[in-house]
């Protein structure tokens, strides 16, 4: 029998394609257009080619922001991933009221909007009215995140750890819950140590969700903007001016649309490339596990 193909299904997909075009493709093409042109106002543009890309790639300002961004992301991953694994391992495994309460309490920071998180920690760290700042001041610590770069970094890192470690915990806990009890019973019969159980049973089962957690935390931390901007505004000086904050300052503060467009495209491509590497590792890991 001859097969017939019904093309009417494309009409069901058409609204989604139109939505994606207006929300993603058209704005992206606008940014590409600005990145290769310059303007002096009055909607008059002239072609400059790759001039803005060369300027951004050679800019020491962008290099410094990139270094700060990489250091921040590495610190965040180094703290949140091990801490998330540790908390997930020590959560109750059996379902019940206590387990539900623990999951709800852990998930609470994820429900708070980013700008609210920044506002909470901005107030929390103030010496005059903030609990944290006031306590540290009373204990004799010279703490002031608005004037000291080290204090600003510590505040932002602790804030991010408080906000996002829950995501790692929940993903790791889901991986642990998927392990059959028979694995633990066999390990108990073999008198395996706690480290051996973690190394050969729990860690392999968490590998997939850990890669997802690392990928999500990398993307979020590498694109972080709202929280540090609300708390420090990128200061003191440029101490906490990450790539996203520097990009906004360039685009809105200085109104350098051409360089800002080129900057945003390079920023986007870097994140896309590293995310693709993570995705490739995840796929290869799944294939290896399946084999």
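^ structure tokens above, recovered residues below v
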């Amino acid at each position: 029998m001859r097969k017939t193909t019904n093309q009417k299904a494309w009409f069901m997909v058409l609204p989604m394609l139109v939505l994606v075009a207006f929300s993603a493709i058209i704005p992206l093409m606008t940014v590409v257009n600005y990145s290769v042109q310059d303007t002096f106002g009055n909607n008059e543009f002239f072609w400059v080619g790759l001039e803005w890309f060369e300027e951004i790639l050679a800019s020491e300002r962008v290099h410094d922001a990139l270094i700060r961004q990489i250091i921040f992301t590495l610190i965040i991953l180094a703290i949140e991933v091990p801490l998330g694994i540790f908390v997930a391992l020590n959560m109750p495994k059996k379902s019940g009221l206590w387990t539900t309460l623990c999951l709800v309490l852990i998930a609470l920071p994820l429900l708070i909007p980013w700008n609210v998180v920044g506002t909470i920690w901005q107030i929390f760290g103030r010496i005059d009215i903030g609990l944290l700042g006031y306590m540290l001041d009373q204990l004799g610590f010279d703490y002031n995140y608005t004037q000291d770069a080290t204090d600003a970094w510590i505040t932002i890192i602790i804030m991010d750890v408080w906000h996002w470690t829950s995501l790692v915990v929940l993903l790791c806990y889901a991986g642990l819950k998927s392990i059959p009890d028979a694995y633990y019973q066999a390990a108990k019969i073999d008198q395996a140590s706690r480290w051996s159980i973690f190394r050969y049973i729990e860690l392999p089962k968490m590998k997939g969700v850990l890669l997802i957690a690392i990928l999500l935390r990398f993307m979020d931390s590498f694109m972080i903007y709202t929280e540090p901007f609300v708390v420090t505004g990128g200061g003191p000086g440029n101490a906490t001016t990450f790539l996203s904050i520097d990009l906004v300052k360039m685009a809105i503060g200085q109104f350098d649309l051409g360089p800002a467009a080129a900057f945003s495209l390079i920023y986007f491509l870097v994140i896309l490339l590293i995310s693709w590497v993570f995705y490739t590792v995840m796929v290869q890991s799944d294939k290896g596990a399946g084999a």
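The chain has two domains: 23-58, 71-257.
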